[in-house]
Amino acid sequence: MNSTDILNKIKKLAEEEDEKARKVDAILSLVAEDIYYGNSDLEFLEINNARNPHIACAVDGSKYQLDVGDFSLIIARAVKVKGISGEKGKRIPPDIKEDVKLEDNYYGEDKVGKDAILLMLTLETEILSSCSDCDVIFIDGPIIDPPTYDDNDEDLKKFHEVRKLTISTSDKIIGIVKRFAQRFLINKLINDGYAQLIEARESYIVQNLFLKLRQKFEDYKNPRFLGWISWDSIFSSNYTTDLAGLGKAYKKYNIKLYSGYFQQNAISPVARIDVLSPDNNKLAYIATWSYPGINEVTILNKLADDISNVSKAEAEAYLNLLISARKTLPMMRKA
Asked: What is the pTM of this model?
């Protein structure tokens, strides 16, 4: 294939993608019309701040994995940041809980990677159980976030049992999902008759639908929410393959979940919101602590994300300590 053929092929691909984008845009205009005129069960709500004094907490975790020689070192950290909203405004006192665990692993890369995620989520779940003093709990990511769901893995089964118990006993938890790995809104719209969206990307659909709805409602500055979507309605109907793994985990957890989409203002990213019950009052807590332009949506989640992050320098320091300890063991045994 010569350069002319390549250029013609690229041009054809560009034309096809442009045509596809125009078709999707036309469909989204119809969706926005249905929502605006109340012909859809999805609502585009303006969200006000919470009026009552309350305590909001954000829980987040991170992991770092180092492979050296014959072993892998996994470092996981989880934190809780507390924010207080009262008559004198909002404040974030220095009540930051932190937990770190180290784990070495001598198995293959797949198991090490799974164990790293499992260790991080286990720490997060332990901290979640310490949030009895919080009126609302923001977590980074979906409420159900299994690294995998393997009935034959005893460690995973134990983790899911503990996490299910922790989640099901607290209606305070709100999951804030920054990345659209699952196409919830697209599946909802496909089931509503917009089958042409089957090959669309969730992030593109969400951002563009919010733009069209803000234009129709002539609102570019206020927090807005689009929802609710019942997980039962998604997983009891036809859904795309990208939801298959999550659908299996959802059935195993056997709890009710609902999702929607939140945007602080027109220049802010949109995040998916997961809750155990579709209570619009919960959205007021998000609006109270939301901050324009940040992916984490709330300032509490942003702080939790920053604090929980395990840096490369920290990971290497832990590794050096471990290597030094391993070198001294033979000498200690001889002594």
From this structure: 0.87
